[in-house]
């Protein structure tokens, strides 16, 4: 048989070569596919067990570490499968390295986020479960992943912040310490008794079981405003009690001032009218 160029083609020889190639590479291909399937199952199983194991001891580390280990194991599995098929491992690694370099240059932001995640795990400015304020969001840290940190806000929103931003920007961790100062300011009229108002605040502080005696609370005149004398009230409470304590104290102070005749003045302005003479 001749092809388009007039060259003789031996079909039997081609058939023998095809059969030889099939007989040679089919077992390798089937074995490689089986290895890939079983290997992926084992990797996922191992990562799941590792996630449960580390999650009990360190919830902050498990998501980041498990994601990293999963990626490394899968790359190693692909290299092994490629060598089973007959691809030169050295050449394959070189191709993977070149592709990795190109992808790395294209995804510099992702690499910065990865480095940021490593820094967060090393220096631990916060951990899973902490309440932080960062990038304009206040919420509880739910996960620290390879590239991102997930925060659940108190109004039930899920916020995903890049680790690079968190590692390079200023953030506030409000749950590091077990107690916090609750700052409040109450205005009273200029004609009211300052000492009486202070005693009322002290009594409300002592009556609330959430109040901490150490450090001692601070009650003093913070300033003389345009319409009121501003009293600064700074008690210390447990971190978990801060906002409930603040909201309850606002109501208690208003009711106590009303009962004791202490006024909370409204903003007001005096207007003086003058009659101009005919001249």
From TrEMBL:
Q: Which residues form the Mechanosensitive ion channel MscS C-terminal domain?
A: 184-264
Q: Please name the GO terms that the record assigns under molecular function.
A: mechanosensitive monoatomic ion channel activity
Membrane-spanning parts: 20-43, 64-87, 93-123
Membrane topology annotation? Multi-pass membrane protein
Question: By its UniProt entry, which PROSITE patterns does this protein fall under?
Answer: UPF0003 (PS01246)
What domain of life does the UniProt record list for this protein's source?
Bacteria
Kindly give the Gene3D superfamilies that the UniProt entry links to this protein: 1.10.287.1260, 2.30.30.60, 3.30.70.100
For this UniProt record, the keywords arranged alphabetically read as follows:
Cell inner membrane, Cell membrane, Ion channel, Ion transport, Membrane, Transmembrane, Transmembrane helix, Transport
Record-annotated Mechanosensitive ion channel transmembrane helices 2/3 domain positions: 68-108
Q: What is its main location?
A: membrane
Q: Which InterPro entries match?
A: LSM_dom_sf (IPR010920), MS_channel_1st (IPR049142), MS_channel_C (IPR049278), MscS_archaea/bacteria_type (IPR045275), MscS_beta-dom_sf (IPR023408), MscS_channel_2nd (IPR006685), MscS_channel_C_sf (IPR011066), MscS_channel_CS (IPR006686)
Query: Where in the cell does this protein reside?
Result: Cell inner membrane; Cell membrane
Q: Describe the location of the Mechanosensitive ion channel MscS domain by residue ranges.
A: 110-175
Q: Which GO terms describe its cellular component?
A: plasma membrane
Q: Which family does it belong to?
A: Belongs to the MscS (TC 1.A.23) family.
Q: Which proteins does it associate with, and in what oligomeric form?
A: Homoheptamer.
Describe the function of this protein: Mechanosensitive channel that participates in the regulation of osmotic pressure changes within the cell, opening in response to stretch forces in the membrane lipid bilayer, without the need for other proteins. Contributes to normal resistance to hypoosmotic shock. Forms an ion channel of 1.0 nanosiemens conductance with a slight preference for anions.
Name of this protein: Small-conductance mechanosensitive channel
